[in-house]
Specification:
By secondary structure, this protein is α+β, with helices and mostly antiparallel strands. It is about 15% helix and about 40% strand. It has 2 domains: about 35 residues; about 160 residues, Immunoglobulin-like.
Length: about 200
């Protein structure tokens, strides 16, 4: 009987300590941890030519860096607002950790999804995302993407980079410029497509 009482008291004390830690100590410790601040940046973008003939391939070389704390994941996105199909886009080479992904074919829902207040939008054009998970501080990755424009005129390319956790404004690059279909800033590049 005495052993049972001692066991019950020991379990009660252990539960009391556990709940005290759960309610008072652990939340305070968690809130005192400073959030990581990865800093996404696109350090280099080059297009293979300032103008090309219709039917000719354009190569886009893009390099991204994390200038802040380690990121859980960092994405470099290359968007093609002049394209509504995906059959003329190809990754030539990359050194990112994950396989590049074709994102949001036109007509599908797309969202930045970095917070609960982000809303979905209907995709208007195709983009490619190249990314690494994790992306360590100071690390640089690059990719070469080939695209064949389908119409004459100005062919536009949107470039941005986003680091997660998305805890501050420097987790997104660029900080200003043109807004894309996700209502995020992008750098805009273009080439002139002429008759062959």
């Amino acid at each position: 009987m005495l052993k049972a009482i001692i066991l019950i008291v020991a379990v009660a004390v252990a539960l009391g300590v556990y709940f005290s830690l759960s309610l008072y100590v652990f939340p305070q410790l968690y809130q005192s941890i400073e959030a990581r601040r990865p800093q996404a940046i696109v350090t280099d973008v080059s297009l293979s030519a300032p103008d090309i003939a219709l039917g000719q391939a354009l190569t886009i070389s893009v390099t991204g860096t994390n200038n802040g704390d380690d990121a859980d994941m960092q994405i470099v996105s290359v968007g093609f607002p002049n394209l509504t199909t995906t059959d003329n886009i190809k990754i030539l080479k990359h050194n990112f950790d994950q396989t590049p992904m074709l994102i949001a074919p036109p007509g599908e829902l797309s969202s930045s999804g970095y917070s609960d207040t982000d809303s979905s939008v209907l995709a208007q054009y195709t983009s490619i995302e190249v990314f690494s998970r994790p992306w360590e501080a100071g690390k640089t990755y690059s990719a070469d993407i080939e695209v064949i424009p389908k119409t004459e005129g100005r062919f536009v390319v949107f470039i941005k980079s986003v680091a997660l956790p998305h805890t501050w404004e420097q987790a997104h690059y660029p900080q200003d410029g043109t807004l894309d279909q996700q209502k995020e800033f992008v750098e805009t590049y273009s080439v002139e497509v002429t008759k062959p």
